Amino acid sequence: MTAREPKVLVSACLLGRPVRYNGSAKRLDEQCLTRWIAEGRVVSACPELLAGLPTPRPPAEIADAKSGAAVLSGDATVIDADGQDVTAIYVQGAQAALALATQQGCQYALLTDGSPSCGVSFIYDGSFTGRRHQADGAAAALLRQHGIQVFSPENICDLAALIDR
Predict the structure, then answer these.
(1) What confidence score (pLDDT) does residue 1 get?
(2) Residue 45 and which of 8, 77, 93, 99 are 20 to 30 A apart at CA?
(3) Quick check: is 2 in a domain?
(4) Considering the domain boundaries, does residue 1 fall inside one?
(5) Is residue 14 part of a domain?
């Protein structure tokens, strides 16, 4: 790989690592992702683990149907299913993911949807009832704020078109 070939920060759960809140993975089997791994373009990250959260852990959601950007600006909180305010650790995880992406020269990120950290096109609304809304998680928002283009698995073809051009 040359210095010009872009790298991609990828949610560790999409790479088959059992790091989700319930100890599961969310493996994404896509030929382009397999090729990027072989080419050394993929940087694996789980913002929650980077911040020190264990696996498994209580599920968490951004309260009041707000966004990751609102969490970063201090206008929203992340609450876990036990009622604990875990905002600071989710902000810390977002910052750690950004630091890793920057250090590794990632221009893109492929993140899993639904997560209060990695959600790209939707997250859950904070009611713990399964209701979703269109918003991003804290890590996705922070990466975007720093010029990293963020994609969900649903949009991997768009990412592949950018990387493989």
Answers:
(1) 46
(2) 77
(3) no
(4) no
(5) yes
